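call fold target=Putative restriction endonuclease
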Amino acid sequence: MLVIEIISPTSHFRDMHAKTEVYAAAGVENYWVVDPTFDDAVVMTVFQRNGTGKYQQALSTSKVFDTDVPYPITIDLPALTALRDKYLAARDEA
């Protein structure tokens, strides 16, 4: 099972800390957090359950993310960063 969260400015602590306890206790093996609030990049943090049933941070990246767990997927975080920056620039011009 996989849960993916997109952080908003008001949910950072909840998504990165409190929800890790809830999802790990529920047996969710993979928990990914996408954080678009960094100035220079969209960052994804990957948590995986360890042998004790708690989450361990496996990876944090702003590069292209490619994995086979829990299924094959590629996420182009630089492309998401470019899209976010384009959206924000257009919003600021309006």
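return ok
The radius of gyration is 14 Å. Residues 2-93 form one domain.
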